Structures are given as C-alpha cells and as structure tokens.
Fold these 3 entries.
Entry 1:
Amino acid sequence: MKLIHCKDYQEMSKKAAEIFAAQVILKPDCVLGLATGSTPVGTYEHLIEWYKAGILDFSQVKTVNLDEYVGLDETSDQSYRYFMNHNLFDHINIDKANTNVPNGKAPDIAAETDRYEALIKSLGGIDVQLLGIGNNGHIAFNEPHDAFDGRTHEVQLTESTIQANARFFASMDDVPKRAVSMGIGTIMQARKIVLIANGPKKADIIYETCFGPITPNVPASALQLHPDVTIIVDEDAYAAVAAKCGK
Ligand code: PGA
C-alpha cells in the first residue's frame, strides 16, 4: 500500500488523474473502474482538460462504475449514471456504449447484480479502479458489516450513509435506501486500485484503513491485502496518520 499526501484537493486530484491518464496512454483499450461522489470530481476535470488538449484519447476505453441507487436511472439527476455523464462522459470522446453503470431500474435486481459481475469478467477485469471512501470506511456501498461482502450485490444503505446522502435530495423520503454495489471481492480483483480522500472528516478513517486491523467493520481495510493500492490524500485527510505515525 502506497500512501501519498498532497497539499490540497487540487494536487490530490491531479495525482490521481495522472495515474488514470497513464493507464489510458499505455493501454488505449483499458478498462477503468470509476467512482462517484464529491471527491473524484477534480480528477475527472483533469482528464477532461487533457482530452481537450489532445493528450488523451478515450475512443477505445471501457468503464465500469462501482454502484448505483436502486430505483434511479439517468433521468434522475441524483443517479450515478447521470453524475458520470455530466462530470465526465459527456466531455470526452468515449463511446457511451462502452460505459457501464449498474441498472438501478432493472426489474430483477438479483439478476442485475449477476449480469454486472459477469460483464466485468467478460471485459477481462478492471485495469485500474478509482475509489472514494465514506467516513465510516465504506468503499462503493460496502458498509461496515460482520463479514466482507463478496461480489456485486444489493445493499441496504446504513442510516449514516442515508443521512450523508440526504443533502442531495429534496426530502428524506426521496433518499434511496438501497443500492447495487460491486462487492469487496469484485474491487479486490482490480489489477490496480487508487483511493482518494480529502478533508478533515476523512482523517481518522484513512488512518484506520492504512494502519488499523483488517476488519469488515472498516471495509476499506481489506485494501491492505491488495498488492497494488495507492492512497492519495490531502493534508487534512493525512492529519491522523501524521499525528500517530510522526509524519
Ligand atoms: P464523497 O463520498 O466523495 O462524497 O466524500 C465518498 C464515498 O462515500 O464513497
């Protein structure tokens, strides 16, 4: 596990974007694993900028996203498909047919989770997966649990995640309570993983993720077992590591 600390959000975003840009340049038909949330927005802005500057070509790139809310699709501006279209796909030369987000409106969610897992396999697996992290250590929608979740599955969101998401919705009743999410096992099969985090609220969980015990109570701690993980944080998110590990 490699931990890189940057001075601010901009520098964190640029470093993460550089890894994804390098992947696209080295393997133009690569499979990128992508994430939603406020953290990756800056990373996507850099990728868009480098596409516009003629540095990156996404025409052969394929993508798979981590998760989607059950009941939402791209017609909802709170869906993760909408987020990806607006924050990245609409601004680069990617073929939308090559972009994949779980279908939150699938009539049979169990069948959708199986389809998504099989899809990732049929693409040959994920070359590099981007992750954010929840304040409680969740990655994708894998919440603190009794056991590590395996494959893509339907998730009942925890109260803390529902509360954290509420800011994006008109009322509490509108906040989705369920999601389709890649499992920890799916994520761990990515050949390379990049986790980004910024802000003081993420400081304790970054310390736990990197130096705490490997436990389903901190889903991101499973990453300690992966051979190629880079965690990129800003100064605020690095604070607990700096305090406890002496820099
Ligand atoms: P955030 O969410 O990027 O909005 O902080 C991260 C997450 O919950 O995975």
Entry 2:
Amino acid sequence: MSNLKISDRFVKPFLNQSNFTSELERAENARQTLLNRTGLGNEFLGWVDLPNQIKSEDLQSIRKAAETIQSHSQYLVVVGIGGSYLGARAVIEALTPEFSSPETQKKSVKILYAGHHLDADYHFRLLAFLEGKEFSVNVISKSGTTTEPAIAFRLLLSLLERKYGKDNIKNRVFATTDKSKGALKHLADEYGFPTFIIPDDVGGRYSVFTPVGLLPIAAAGFSINKLIDGAKQMESELKSTTSQGGNLACLYAAIRNSLYTLGKTTEIFVSYNPSLSYLTEWWKQLFGESEGKNGKGIYPASVQFTTDLHSMGQYIQDGERKLMETVIKIETPKQDVYLTEKTNDNDGLNYLAEKKLSEVNQSAILGTLIAHKDGGVPCLEFTLPAINEEILGELMYFYEFACAISGYMLGVNPFDQPGVEDYKNNMFALLGKKGYEKKKDEILSHLGSI
Ligand code: PA5
C-alpha cells in the first residue's frame, strides 16, 4: 500500500454523481490506453515502467559520479530548464533543511542552478561567486540545443577552463543528454566528459527518475535508492489497481475532469510546507505542459499557506468561482515545537499553551478547507505521513501517471509541447540566428503595424 491517502469529503458536495461515475469509467479507459500503449504520444511512454526497470548498475554509476563530485566540490551547478531541472530541484529543496550548520554543509555538496532563465545579473553574480570556490557542473539537456542552458554552460565552461585548465576538468563536468544527437552530446564527446543518457522514450517533464533527476539528487546527499523504491511501489500499485478498485491516479484524474466540466478551470496546488515550493513548480510544469493544448486544459496554479492566505486568500474565498484546490497535508513534522504558558499572557496566546505548532497548523488547514468549501471551492485532500525520499518517489510517480490519464481523458497528447516553440522562433529571429531571416522580417512588419 502506498503512503498517499486521498480524501474527497470537501469535493463530494460539488460533484454530480452520475457525471463522476462516468468520469471514473473514462479514467479507467485512459489507464488501459496508457498501459496498452495505444494512445497519443505512445513513443514517449518509457517513464511508465522506469522505476521497476532501472538497473542497479545504472544507479551505482550515478552514485559513483555523485561521490566524485562530493570528493572535490563544495558546489554543484545544475544547468538545465523545464523538465531538465525542476524534478531534481523539487526533491532537493523538499529534503534540504532551511538552516544547516557548517558541519552539515561540509558533508554535502550545495546545489546551485543555472540555465533556467536568461537574467544577466544572476549569471554575473553566479560566475563571480564561483571564482573562489571548488565546483562541478551537471549540464542537462535532452535535445542538447536549448538556448538557456547552452548559454549558461558556455559561460561556466569558460570559467572552469580558466580556473582549472582544459585538461583538468574531465571529472568536474557531467553531461546528461541524448545518446547520440545534439550539440551537448558532441561537445561532451569532444572534451571527454562523463555522459549520462536520457532515454529516447522519456520526455523532459517525466524524467525525474532518469539521471536527469537522479544525479543532482545523489550529489546533494539524498538516497536515490529510496526515491526509486517509492516510485516502484506506486508504479506497481497504479498498474495493478483498476479505477473501480480504488486506483488513486484514476480517482484524482476523474475528480479534476469532473470539476472541469462544472467550470472549475483552475486547479490550485496548496501546500502548508514551504519546503514543497519547488514540488509545486514541478507539478505546474507537468500538468501545464501536458494538458494545456488545443484551447483546453485546467490551469495549474499554486499557493503556499498560511503565507498566501494573507495575499491570495481573499480571491480564493470570494473571487471568480472557477477554482478547485488540491491540498497536500503532511501528518507529522520531523521536529515539533511546543508553546508554553506565560504568566502575564500579554500576547493573548495562553489558550495555545502546551499545544504543538503542528496542531495549530492542522487547525489552520481544517479551518481553511471548511471556509473554502463554503465559499464554493472544492478541495481535494492529499495526506502523506512525512516528507522523505521514498514518499517523494511515490508522489512524483503518482502525479506522472495521473497526468497522463488526465491528458488522455481531455483528448490531448500529454507528451508533446508544440506551443513552447513559438517564443523560441521569435527570439531566434530577433537575435539574428541563421535561418530565421524571413521570420525576423515578419516580426518587424508586425511590430510596425501595432
Ligand atoms: O518537459 C519538457 O519536455 C521540457 O520542459 C524540456 O524539459 C525543456 O524544454 C528542456 O529541454 P531540453 O532538455 O531539451 O533542454
């Protein structure tokens, strides 16, 4: 049994039972389509069997590379964007304590990120910061041609060459890319950098259980074996359980599609744990890029409570009624804090004396769930016992599987992203890239007419 529990008690009042029953049937059909590989984009289904098929020698070579990095580097710069970056960051941020002592820091490599945007100040400061530090780079790009990481890697490679000498960086650069094609693969071969392969049949946002996610996670000091164990558990459960038998991915997909037909066009991922903020970013990419096609798709949004109850709470309670929520609740914190009694009670908090902070948080969660449900927002609850590698592995595989099912139910290909090309073509034309001359003329005349 997986650790994830889903409760629909604050969704049921909104659902039309017969519509929901038929959505559950459609979810089961979509599950069969996925498992039989008969749906759209079925050339990108390598991720479905990945956790149970990963070879122990592959995990071993990832761990070995991580140990090499840890042996000589204080920092690992992970260079990538979108699916080539968010999965690793989601896990690393979820597991890294916000405040760590110098002793803890000494043991693990601190992960920095680059190539996930084009901000000049950030990259200037990163390069200046790394000047006097021992560092390595893991450059990740399936296509090997994506502009943002390619630029960041060029900058970092120049720094590495200047700092250590071209012949001394073979154990400091690790490339994760396609087995044969793309500029990154050719560059890695030319320099002799160790290379990890992204399987052809695994797309970026479904790649966290490949070296794309695993190498940075291992270098950060977390157990990739436990992460994979969790994913394996969820893979087995979702493959063997039917929708009618309680398949959680089908339940989630059926609920969100059922609510979508009732006009709930935005799903808000709600978490009460700041450490999950990048998990929400990963989730937004997974669902946004997979479902937002052909004028359709639930818009994936996120908030961090209770922080955002003081910013977005008003809109959620009372604004346009197009929202649904999925709330992630963590049952037990790693460490708890007790409130004590004060003799003068001058802050008025003695009514909380002897309560744990986690109890206060649980009351905030329940109070908010009731308020939002009363305000017309269906709230689905996901409960997890804790945050650790195994549970994150379960949860991330769950989301991948549910996203594929939900995309099929919506009638889109959940594994492509044709819309992402449009901004790139305009940017290349504006920058004068060869082959984009006609596009540049079109853009200039378009700009002239507005
Ligand atoms: O999910 C996806 O496919 C995308 O988000 C890609 O991961 C992203 O565009 C980066 O692509 P690449 O790995 O080819 O650099």
Entry 3:
Amino acid sequence: MDTGFVQTPAVQDLLDRAAGVGSAGGNPRLKVILRDLIEQIMTLIVRHDISENEVWDAVNFLQSGAGEFGLLMPGSGIEHFLDLYMDAKDVEAGKTGGTPRTIEGPLYVAGAPLVDNDANLTTDPDETSTLYMSGRITGPDGEPVPGAILHVWHANSKGFYSHFDPTHEQTPFNNRRRIRVGDDGRYAFHSKMPNGYSVPPGGASDTLMKALGRHGNRPAHVHFFIEAPGYRVLTTQINFGDDPFAADDFAFGTREGLLPVPNRQGDSATIVFDFHLQRAEDAEEEHFSHRARLAVAA
Ligand code: FE
C-alpha cells in the first residue's frame, strides 16, 4: 500500500486527537513534535509493510531493553548524530574552534573525589602499565582557563567501570576523579591503562548488534567533562589511536582530533593532550546536559 494512506482523513484525525491538537491544555511544542513522531512511525509501518507481530516484537524489545537505553543511543548512532547536529549548528552560528565534542556514554558517576593536579586515579590493584596524561586547558584566545574542573573516568584493564563492574571487584570511584586544574591551565594525572570493552553479552545492545551483523566493541578510551566559569562545558573523550577498534567504534565516539597514540615505553604510556574550550554565551552552556546520571556520595 502507498504511504498516502497515512494522509487519509481518518488517520489524520486520529493523529490530531492522539497529539491533543484540539485540546486547550498541554504543551504546544510537545503536541507538534509528538504528532510528527507518531506520523513518522505510521508512515514507516506502511512503507515497509510492518506486520502487527513485528510492531509488538519491537515494543517487546524496547520494553525489555529499557535498562540499556544508555547503550542503544550510541549504538544506534543517535548520540553521535546529536554531536554532528550541534557541530553544524555551531558552524552556522559562527562558533568554531575548540576540542571536538563527542558522546558522553552512560557510565559517568557524579560525586567522584575532588583532587589536585598530579592525582592518581586508580585506587585498586591492576596489573597493567601506567598511563601518564597531561596537557593544557586553554580558551579561544589561547588563554589559560582558570578554575577549571576536569572530570575523568575510564575502565580498568578488564574493560569494566567502577560502579558498573559485573565482577564487583572495584572500589567506588576507582578510575574516577574530578581534578582541580591549576590557574595556569595545566592538568596532569596518572592511572592504570584502560582497555576497550564490549556491550554486555546477551543484553539488548548485543541482540541488536547481532541482528544488524555488527559488533559491540569500543576501543580503549578515557572520558572527560571540563567545566570552568564563563566557558562552555566540554563533553569529550580520547580513544587510543593504536587500538584495533580505534576506527571501528560501535558507539561512534571516535572522532578526528581525539585519537592520540599513547607513547608506550616499558610499563608506562604517556599521552600529552591539550583541550581548547569555547566561551559560554549563556549560563546554560556552562552546565551539563539533562541526561540522568548516577550520583554517589564519595
Ligand atoms: Fe566508556
């Protein structure tokens, strides 16, 4: 059948009523967006002749996989699309420069210990080499950014994050800190080298990846937020340029400019990486996105 079916008066009337178009109450913006969304879904059903059973298969998948929405967002490319869209809008608004943003992912935990530069992020034993990372945090004119807080979080050598470790071997906030950056903009920390990881076997993301003939692996990486008064909060991460999955990240988090190759010497690895922030145009730009995050008292 032709997708023109969705344009018939009966379906259009159904859409109006479902989105509350005729009612005085409610949120006007939500009504418009939701009407569009439902219409798109109806159009997809007709275009691909999706059966009743297939619709319920999809609903069952989303219902049972709700706990993995944080992984389905990057795995489906939607989280990276948001970055591409925000980049494009920045270009349109003349806001260029700065370290590229990239996906946050679902594993940040608020409340990590606040420490000074040269901190050790790793509190648990981990038989792997030590990562030494340092660099400068500067603004658009090359000025050192004073009062910056660098949030760092990464996996251990088994690819597991504290607070989300299925082996329960890690103490809270292992490989997680907030670093008080010096007023000269220099930061430095060391920790045990993370490894890449894959989506949990048998979970919703794994099921989806297999159904698409894709893998669910990420290269080894380190996540960052940088916040500083007067500057736009930066959400980014570096992926290790020498990781086998560096160019094939299931989450699409790898970006040009965020792929340093660690300088590996014996049992240490060094990365020197500078961050460049943009100035905030309003208070909202200084704050994190509305994403729900686990918060734990340190
Ligand atoms: Fe990660």
